[in-house]
Design brief:
CATH class of the largest domain: Alpha Beta
Structural class: alpha/beta
Number of domains: 2
Helix content: 25-40%
CATH topology of the largest domain: Rossmann fold
Strand order of the largest sheet: 3-2-1-4-5-7-6
Shape: elongated
Number of strands: 16
Number of helices: 9
Bound molecules: S-adenosylmethionine
CATH superfamily of the largest domain: Vaccinia Virus protein VP39
Largest sheet: 7 strands, mixed
Amino acid sequence: MTHPRLSLALAAGGLAFGDGRVAVFGPRADVSLRDLPQARCQLITGFKPDVDLFEQQGWDVAVAPEGAFTAAMVFLPRAKKLAKAMIHTAVALSAGPVVIDGSKNEGVDSLLKDLRKRGVVENVISKAHGKLFWITGFTAADLADWQAPERQEIDEGFETAPGVFSADGIDPASRLLVSALPDKLGKHVADLGAGWGYLARNILTREKVKTLALVESDHAAITCAQANVRDDRATFHWADATAWRSERLLDAVIMNPPFHTGRAVEPQLGQAFIATAARNLAQSGQLWMVANRHLPYETTLAERFLDVKEIAGDNRFKVLHAARPRRSGR
Ligand SMILES: C[S@@+](CC[C@H](N)C(=O)[O-])C[C@H]1O[C@@H](n2cnc3c(N)ncnc32)[C@H](O)[C@@H]1O
């Protein structure tokens, strides 16, 4: 399958990537890269499941661009600040065209409008609920206000980065989970989908916790967590939680699992987190998790644990506690 807009731009729209290296920002496994010159591309993404997949497919992948480029392509992320920062970096690094592609949901129209106020935007291709266009005459100075600081400080002194989950403040669901956690969690704990470390810092206020594994797929988020959680008991795992295995069986898993990677709700992601929790818990181990009230986790919990109950909640969120994992082998 080819990319609906990129294939058009290359075939008939007058777009050419030249002969040099191409920096590709924000590629995702669900977007076709077939039209790109693979041998000359560096894919820039920090989402570990995609990094692993792209590497298996033979792409050069990095979490930050390395070296010089003669062209760049930006696949827009949902977070606007991050999208602008990516375009700024792409313009700063590319000697030639910067191609921007995104769906309406990713805010492509407002970015296009904003860019048109600043310079010339060539050949807009609209297809499949999105737009692709390219810019050539821009300099980084034209987009200076789009440059984002690598880190920002939010409530309680936490550091976050553009585009990470809940970058501008503590998530209310995670706050609710923290307020429902007991004093005793046991010695060995994991925080699945740890983000920039809000839950982890609270978990580690308990002296009896001896080890805490923070498992997170977003490189920018786990890097923030390393800055936010300065404690020798913490270990940081840039990994896909759905495939993660703890070195030892755990006493507790705490999590506010993700429920989408793109725009659409994907409850199977949270369900896979529940499976990871059950697989890694000792027989006496317990899971505490928070979720949006409408998400269907109870059936999966009942399949994986003998005791499941809601221990706190409001009209938006529920905190679920599960104990006695059913053994189906790790
Ligand atoms: C709802 S957020 C919770 C973040 C953090 N625990 C908090 O309370 O602020 C879910 C986190 O899971 C991460 N995530 C998404 N898919 C993942 C995966 N397959 N493996 C590990 N983490 C993942 C997201 O990047 C995000 O940081």
